[in-house]
Task: structure prediction
Amino acid sequence: MRWSKTLSPVARSAVASLAVLLLTSVHHAYGAFIYRTPWRLHMVAIAAVTAVVLLGALAVLRARPGGWTGGVALAVFALTTLGVPVGMIGVFEGAYNHVLKNVFYFGGASPELLGRLFPPPTYELPNDFLFELTGVLQVVPAVLAAVFLVHAFRGRRQRLTGAGLPEVL
Result:
């Protein structure tokens, strides 16, 4: 069976979020090594802390899915997912720092524009295939994490409003 059919939407979002965190850790560690920029390693620590928060919220949500505790655990899980794997990594790091940068660079943008949008030494213009590939790929599991999170909230809303009956408000 496919994992997407056997896991709950929250668990699928967690798997996708953890994939983002692992991929960004590899990406930043590799970038720190090839560009001799050890400051990039801070992202590995951020990813580790984020993974602990996500897994902790998931554990609480599984132990107490209903009521106040489950609601708080889901909120922590959702805010953490949207804040780090989706927002900070997927949108900013993956989409802006890599997808947009590569589109502009390979699309022939001027060096002045590239320098304004992606100023050195924080940014490197595309010169290493693996670094750029792992940067761009961060977007894929981030999008999945967001989509699965939306499915989780839709399912929770349907359970709370009576198996899909329309909400009054």
Remarks:
- Residues 164-169 have pLDDT under 50 and may be disordered.
- The helical segments are 3-6, 9-34, 42-63, 67-106, 111-117, 129-137, 139-160.
- The chain is about 75% helix and 0% strand.
- The radius of gyration is 19 Å.
